[in-house]
Amino acid sequence: MISRIDNIQHVQTKNYHKTNLCPKVSNNVPFKGHLKIEMTPNEGFEILRHETGFFREYPTLKFVKDYVEKFFKDKDEIRIVSGACSTGEEVVSLGILLNAMKDKVKILGIDVGEKAIDSAKSGKYTFERYKYMHSGSNLSALSDVFLAFKTKNKLSIEQKGLKQLFDKFFEPTDTVFADKIVTEGNKFIAFLNKLLLMPIVKEQKEYKIRDGELRNCEFVLGNITDINEITKGKKSDVILFRNAMYHMATDYFDTVKGKRVLCNSAENIIENLINILKNNLNKNGILCFGEHEGYQLTNDKILPNVLKKLGFEPLNRTPKQEATVWKLKSE
Question: What pTM did the predictor assign?
Fold first, then answer.
């Protein structure tokens, strides 16, 4: 079972840039993940999008794993922080990948969503997929659905390896879900129902972390901008803040242009955040971002330019943007 940080789990959120988010508008990133909406009090109410999945953007996670194993292997303690961790899939994925170093690796997930953090602490995860009721064909399968359901498509070698890892740390619960005929909440599914004259069903399975596993993964309610307070001044070796920057640096979604609009102070907001994360990094520490930050921010240069300005250099290359992992240059 995942351990808790009970003495600081009620850290108050503050300095969280208020945005005009609409739960009906997608961020248009081509990732099929678990999506939940949460309302949280923050100068009124803030709508949080919890979009996540196990082993999401795996190339970046694997790069982090390999970097930690190579450059931090001689450290007595390795501290990893995942900001905007949502319901904890990223934290757990890293815990699984770095399990061989579990005695020295400590992974902390931070999120401003109270329901998301409570869910992460429970150590239980629900997988779901859509299928035609009569034919059994899969529809809109999630990116990590292969971990819980058998699929008609042949798994890649990489997927087989991740499935074996997942089964080592997770077991199905006794929770039984009745298959639900999807009639509301998804216009595309509703349209297919009428077009195909075949009811489409959502089926679900729940898994939990096996007893005694992943005890080095912890979660706390809080804001990434308060990382130094939350970690009580202890510096980190790896900080991840993936696919969440747009919540802080954009004001709204322009339905005419089909993209988000950066707020006037976007560059300053990003620079202030990077400075906070920089001050929490140990020597040779790394910052990790999502593979679609540029798309979400509608500007693929703003984040790299800020990172370079503050003394960071790219460590990897990705198809969508300059890099997802950055290291502070040696002085």
Answer: 0.82
